[in-house]
């Protein structure tokens, strides 16, 4: 579905029809500083191939843009640059990524979005910036990529918040089984990593070599945001590994405590059982049995022993 | 066994006999854009040496092609490029790899397959593409390698599915001993890794330096698929490591639960035993013994205590 | 808030008003070896933009300086170099970092501090060194960065002390739950790492390539301090990982000990219970029961057995 | 001990006496394609220094060759190349390595072996190949190194077999203490690694830069074998790490099972003890005691309860 | 404290007074192949600054040499090279390092030692070698560094011996708590690593680029020794990690054994207690009680059961 198709002349937007002929005409009529911006969402093969002709897109890149299982990358073709990037969103311990494929030509920008949030905001941002920037499609590319990459850091922050939640749970006095959630967060971090990491090197190269001189600081800024997101991911990864190990240690500590309680409890009950057993024996000559206060004395001894053992265990922290 | 031997003239196939003399003739008769494609499966030393002469293959490469224990690699010899690659298939937690050795000459392509699936599909694909491509053996090479590497991602996906199965089992309420399967998947992932990883760098180099200019985007595409498979493998590896750790944590949690049940159970039975023991003592002066309702009162007390302890443990989750 | 604004002429300080016009005048009046040093703390957008004009700071760098969520970095713009660095302080197992953003122009140094300790000391240090150094803003930059990086090593030393505390606790005879603190230190080390590591490579590059020839040994010195701090961090990281593992081993040892005590205790009490049970049986023909010394003999046997078992366990270290 | 000393003229062997004067003469009489091959085993300082003179070996290299504690390496001296490599053999979980030091001059090859298997086979192999190769000492070097490196893969295969044995033991139903053997294999793998890894980079460099053009594919082949051995080692390492972790998990599973058996057993015995205790009480008014069938009824109840509990535990897998 | 100060003329030593004037004179009087060697131990600031003038040492390097908290490094200044290296000694599981700072000028060598063993041996070694070497301060530098680095390997060997001791303890039948010692060795290995690792790259660079041509094989030799020490450290590190894991596995195995002993013991005692409990019941109609051989039969049954259970557990290895 073609979402939007507009020519930007000196930073001013003119909407254009999106059929092949009109595209040809629009491209032919572009001045040196003008450019065409086409936005497509969930494209069919027909839609994309109709546009591919006038823009002379490389057939492999068109296939890639249609497939939507690309590894994040930037690739230079003869006539244009192809970029595959992923929007990332996070909710309820779940990372969702959607692919955005972008063609950057000398006088056009084509964005192909597969699901995920709209790029409308990026277009608005780009339009407001176009006057300050080198008036070209690179500025529009910057706006789109910047809006996507900025969101990476938000997601990283949310992940970090959830990691803190897990930490609190691991180290709380309450018993909890946190390994499931730690594993889940680890899994999502891995998915996040696969969206961010492959992009670092090509964006860095684009920012320092391929981008037009005046646009470089801007793409360097994006490269920096990517690095920050990547460091957050590494840091989250490490924290989760450590949280799982700490969880294991906590479980061990808790088991130790239970073991001691078991020992203490068993001992406390063993005492009356053993003593009562002794006075339950049927020997004929057991003088204590005929004492008037034998029974209460026996109970008192049992009670005293139990109390003594209990207080000993209490004091040494076993109960 | 020589499977197929054909000359492609302007993209059109002409089958050729496969004896040495016919090969010499065929090679001599090749035009600038024509090339010869020979496919061999499970070669005997004789078969391969018979072909090696006319194609002037390097003896070391011929040895490598016969041995079928090569590390995946691409090597340039004076007259041709030698490539060793592995087909990978996966079923029932078991990775199987088979070697395909390929000689790419200026006007021929020789594929030597050791077991594994047929390359017939690749040949068909190549034949359908030859017209669009620079009509040469590189196009055929692309078709063969692409069909093999594409399958890597399928295998990675199947592995990921099995990892998810293991995860479900690890985190299910049911007790299970998943370490055996986790280990098995880890082992297969290692074998998969050894088929994929050594190929990444040489394919990347081939795609950016050695391949003819027009074919580069195609091999870059293969390089990209390899990277994606490699990332999947890394990701599976990490998940399995974490799954094993999480499994250990689960086992610890389960042991804690058993320990608590043991403690609770022991306590519940210790109470009647101790009390009964007391009233089993043979003291002469035990007033409770002669009470009319002594016995039922005693039973009631025992019952009440057991119930109280039981409900306490139940409420605190120990039972 | 503009903290300080001064012109250094041949190493001598002259305070200057900080409004835009005065800045323009001050910049215009600078001789070849003079330079302007402006210090700002917690800047508002207005304050910074007022200064940005006369110094012709790049708008992206100005945004970065205002935001205060930068990754430590050094970036070259056309007219100046932008550096983002973090002051690090540590107390009570808690690392706090504050951002200092620095603009180094041909004849000015602008430091923008977001919270954290004052840079007054660095200014004093710089003033005392200016005569020895190439009289320029690079000397001032060195003084500021040196005072910040020097503190990294102090923090690393304090962290190492705390790690030693944890070690003592882990390996002490007393039972302790150290995983919480180990995890906390690990977390803080991660934060510290993110302040230090990204700076290593750009400072090294600045010290060997970008800095003026005479200043290079000084920045190489800073680069060296960074490397030392980085090695300390790596080392702390490793120690904490190992401490957690050792803690797990200690817990396992302690659990083993408890288990043995439980076994020993249960055995000691099981003996009198079993024997007493036997003599509590109601068989009519139990000759021992009518012996005069049956009861004391029985008690003696029980006592002797308990003592024997106790001493056996004691000797083998189970109790 | 000098083992062998021969001049190869056009690939034909002529044995030579090994005293200094004869060496000088032999070297002086060598044609452009001839070379001298000397083999020494367990050299004394005298032997080696006697040869060092005529061949003008660098004193440092001679010291290295005598000491036999070299790190595997290839080093270029002005007049010759010095190579230190290790033969590796494996039996009974034990890796043994022996050093072979090699001097490659323009017209001689000197091999100095410290213990380990003879290089006779390599010499025979070289002699059979010399005619096909550039007739020079490099061909002889290839033969020696190839015979050593080929054996690395055999050793790796044997290690892999032993790892599989350990795996079977870890995952077998039988209880076993495999950590000792896993550790031992790990230790041997480390020693193997130290023999193989340092050689990879210099052999690769030798194969691509230093070796004569025609010999390069041959050394590239060796480099490839090294890579394969190295990958096997990495893979074995990973498997052993995982086997140890899986072993821990197995131990945990076994302990859980024991714990449950303990719980089940304790419960089964606690029931008759508690009930019998109750009917052992001495209350005067316990109507059941005077029932004719009180005793058998009681036994029946106890038996039924025990059976019920037993079957419950059996069904839930605790016994 | 200035230890020694001598001029070496054509390899012959002439002792010189160490005051500033004498130094100036000595330096002025040096021929092209002569050089001055000054050795200082635990320098005061005055001592070093007195010497710094005539040798025109860079003030930063002088500060570094005084401070004695340098990271091992080699740094080129305009007029000289500054090297910081550490002597390492090991005893009783304790690594001690001392700093040696070295200035290498065109015609002088200045060694500044902070504690640690004397360098006298190195000086003697250098004096005996000077005649064979390019007569200059580089030869002296080689002697000093070689004597320090050689000791690294001794220390590594001693560490390896201690690791083997720990291994024996871990895998011995006797119960031991080895985690403390493993941790301690790990910690010392880390300190050792920090003394060795930072030196590898600069020494390698010095050996291949900066050193005079004739001295390179000698420094390459040092570089090689460093690599060997580094590999030993890596290997020790790995072994310690694995030893800790194996220790955990051993603890688990031991706990399993204790658990089984507990289960077995509890069962053996539970049998007489339960049976005796049954015959302790007060039912009126219990025919066994009045049998003449009831009691001995009961004892026999109890004894037989206990023996049977005992032998069962014994046979299955639980006791």
TrEMBL record, chains A, B, C, D, E:
Its main location: membrane. Pfam families: CorA. GO terms for molecular function: cobalt ion binding; cobalt ion transmembrane transporter activity; magnesium ion binding; magnesium ion transmembrane transporter activity. It comes from the Bacteria. It is found in: Cell membrane; Membrane. GO terms for cellular component: plasma membrane. InterPro entries: CorA_cytoplasmic_dom (IPR045861), CorA_TM1_TM2 (IPR045863), Mg/Co-transport_prot_CorA (IPR004488), MgTranspt_CorA/ZnTranspt_ZntB (IPR002523). The chain crosses the membrane at residues 262-281, 293-310. Keywords: Cell membrane, Ion transport, Magnesium, Membrane, Transmembrane, Transmembrane helix, Transport. It is a multi-pass membrane protein. SUPFAM superfamilies: CorA soluble domain-like (SSF143865), Magnesium transport protein CorA, transmembrane region (SSF144083). It catalyses: Mg(2+)(in) = Mg(2+)(out). Belongs to the CorA metal ion transporter (MIT) (TC 1.A.35) family. Mediates influx of magnesium ions. Alternates between open and closed states. Activated by low cytoplasmic Mg(2+) levels. Inactive when cytoplasmic Mg(2+) levels are high. NCBIfam families: corA. PANTHER family: CORA FAMILY METAL ION TRANSPORTER (EUROFUNG). This is Magnesium transport protein CorA. It comes from Aeromicrobium yanjiei. The gene is corA.
């Amino acid at each position: 579905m073609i979402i939007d198709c507009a020519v930007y002349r000196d930073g001013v937007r003119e909407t254009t029809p999106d059929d092949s002929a009109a595209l040809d005409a629009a491209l032919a009529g572009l001045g040196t500083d003008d450019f065409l911006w086409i936005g497509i969402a969930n494209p069919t093969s027909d839609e994309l191939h109709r546009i591919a002709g006038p823009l002379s897109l490389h057939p492999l890149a068109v296939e890639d843009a249609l497939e939507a299982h690309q590894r994040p990358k930037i690739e230079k073709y003869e006539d244009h640059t192809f970029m595959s990037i992923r929007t990332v969103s996070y909710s309820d311990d779940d990372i969702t990524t959607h692919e955005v494929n972008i063609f950057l030509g000398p006088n056009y920008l084509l964005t192909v979005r597969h699901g995920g949030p709209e790029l409308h905001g990026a277009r608005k941002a780009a339009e407001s910036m176009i006057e300050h920037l080198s008036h070209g499609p690179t500025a529009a590319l910057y706006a789109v990529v910047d809006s996507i990459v900025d969101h990476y850091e938000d997601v990283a922050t949310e992940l970090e918040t959830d990691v803190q939640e897990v930490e609190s749970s691991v180290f709380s006095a309450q018993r909890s089984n946190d390994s499931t959630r730690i594993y889940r967060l680890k899994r999502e971090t891995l998915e996040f990593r696969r969206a961010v990491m492959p992009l670092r090197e090509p964006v860095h190269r684009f920012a320092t070599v391929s981008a037009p001189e005046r646009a470089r600081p801007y793409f360097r800024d994006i490269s920096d945001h990517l690095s920050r997101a990547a460091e957050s991911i590494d840091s989250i990864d490490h924290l989760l590994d450590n949280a799982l190990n700490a969880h294991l240690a906590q479980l061990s500590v808790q088991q130790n405590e239970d073991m001691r309680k078991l020992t203490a409890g068993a001992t406390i009950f063993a005492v009356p059982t053993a003593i009562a057993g002794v006075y339950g024996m049927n020997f004929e000559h057991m003088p204590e049995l005929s004492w008037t206060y034998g029974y209460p004395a026996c109970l008192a001894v049992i009670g005293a022993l139990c109390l003594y053992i209990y207080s000993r265990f209490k004091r040494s922290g076993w109960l």
